Amino acid sequence: MEYIKNLELEKLEKKIEELGEPAFRARQIFKWLYQKNVSAFSEMTDIPKKFRAILDNTFHIDSLKLLEEITSSDGSVKFLFGTRDHYVIESVWIPDPPRYTLCVSSQVGCAMDCAFCATAKLGLKRNLDPGEIVDQICLARRSQVIRNKITNLVFMGMGEPLANFENLIAAIGIITQNLGLQFSSRRITVSTAGLVPKLEKLGEMGLQVNLAVSLNATTDETRNFLMPINKKYPLKELIKACREFPLPKRKRITFEYILIEGVNDSLEDAKRLVNILKGQRAKVNLIPFNPHPGTKFRRPEEEKILRFQKVLFENNMTAIIRDSRGEDIGAACGQLGLSYLMKNKEVSKHGASGTGF
Ligand code: SF4
Questions:
Q1: Domains in the chain: how many in total?
Q2: Fewest 10 Å CB contacts: which of 193, 215, 218, 278?
Q3: For residue 280, what is the domain's CATH number?
Q4: Best of 117, 224, 227 to mutate for ligand 1, by most ligand atoms within 8 A of CB?
Q5: Is residue 115 part of a domain?
Q6: Among 16, 43, 60, which residue terminates a domain?
Q7: Which residues of 49-76 are buried (b: 16+ CB within 10 A; e: fewer)?
Q8: pTM of the predicted model as reported, rounded to 2 decimal places
Q9: Annotation says 242 is catalytic
Q10: Rounded to 10 degrees, what is the CA torsion of 172, 175, 177, 180?
Q11: Which residue's alpha carbon is at the smallest distance from atom 4 of ligand 1?
Q12: Range of the domain at 35
């Protein structure tokens, strides 16, 4: 059995023809899957009954299973999803009217090994399929709490999206398809730790998505320590690739900068950041570190955070302090997934048949 949400429209058309029906059925099915968000072929009432039975024997509809939905006191919602091989991934919905953003995962775990990140401790288990990426949106849309309200998508959940490039692009294809999830690419942000060749490839594809770069340091020494990917693609290369990235009109690259006490929060760091980003269409998100169990890092004092921001302001840069939302549910990068995996060792292990749930 295949997972139908892994297939982009053209691939589904081909498959439907192989099953003996005209290709236009794929367009009907796409509407049911993504606009009506059904969970059973029996609900697809304009498809002949006989063919619905064939579809039912050929495909799974959902690629993920909702395990838990946890609402934070600040209104954000964390979704925990189970995969067919019994891993747990997460998405977080962040209401900030008129923006309602879903933060989506792209991998189970992550190989990037960033020193400040809880997900990094899992290592990389595997890439998510296109259907598993897309289904985070479909299943979240079924939630009674969020009631279909998702205006923006950010690929900032578990994993490095550009390390799962092919599946990411296939998923974006379904997400932006007219008959699919109908998101404008301008409402999609892909975040990277700095995989330079893939960042360049993304730019060449001309998808017009927004780009966020997790920067977090202003010297190679500190960045090597915080983000080992920097040893392969150092700051200079990363910033050059950012400068050459074809941005849509009036768009800027978002640079994420997690402020960590005594590591990257000095005035010198702030001044270097100004220099590094000089001439770049950029906005900076300053994110005070949100400590999680087992970390040695601390959040800087409020005064230090404001001083850092002031240096950027004085140099005419846009710099917004963003506290992680949903701290009480562990919504910052990978935290709840990690604690869940720790508590439910049997859930985190392989062992499923691989044929659904
Ligand atoms: S911060 Fe992002 S890229 Fe780095 S280890 Fe965590 S999930 Fe991976």
A1: 2
A2: 278
A3: 3.20.20.70
A4: 117
A5: yes
A6: 60
A7: eebbebbeeebbbbbbebeebbbbeeeb
A8: 0.91
A9: no
A10: 150
A11: 114
A12: 2-60
Cis, peptide link before residue 98, omega less than 30° from 0 = yes
Residues 78 and 170 in one domain: yes
Paired sense of beta strands 210-214 and 152-155, if any: unpaired
Assess whether the C-beta atom of 119 lies below 6 angstroms from ligand 1. Answer: yes
Tell whether the model's pLDDT for residue 337 goes beyond 90.
Answer: no
Give the CA distances from residue 195 to residues 7, 60, 235, 241, 247, in Å, rounded to whole numbers and listed in that order. Answer: 26, 33, 11, 10, 18
pLDDT one-digit tens code per residue, 164-176: 999 999 999 999 9
Residues 128 and 46 placed together within one structural domain of the fold: no
Is residue 259 lining ligand 1, measured as CB closer than 6 Å? no
Residues 95 and 220 in one domain: yes
Instruction: Find the Cα–Cα–Cα–Cα dihedral 150, 156, 158, 162, rounded to 10°.
Output: 120
Within this chain, do residues 154 and 37 fall inside the same structural domain, yes or no?
no
Structure confidence by residue, pLDDT tens digits, 8-20: 999 999 999 999 9
CA of 51 to the centre of ligand 1 (A): 43
- Ligand 1: residue whose CA is nearest its atom 6: 117
Please confirm, yes or no, whether 333 is among the known catalytic residues.
yes
Please report, as a single letter, which amino acid is at residue 278. K
Q: Is 120 in the pocket of ligand 1 (CB under 6 A)?
A: yes
The ligand 1 atom at the shortest distance from the C-alpha of residue 157 is: 7
Q: Which of 90, 114, 292, 341 is the best mutation target for the ligand 1 pocket, counting ligand atoms within 8 Å of the beta carbon and taking the most?
A: 114
Amino acid 328: pLDDT: 58
Residues 26 and 129 both lie in one domain: no
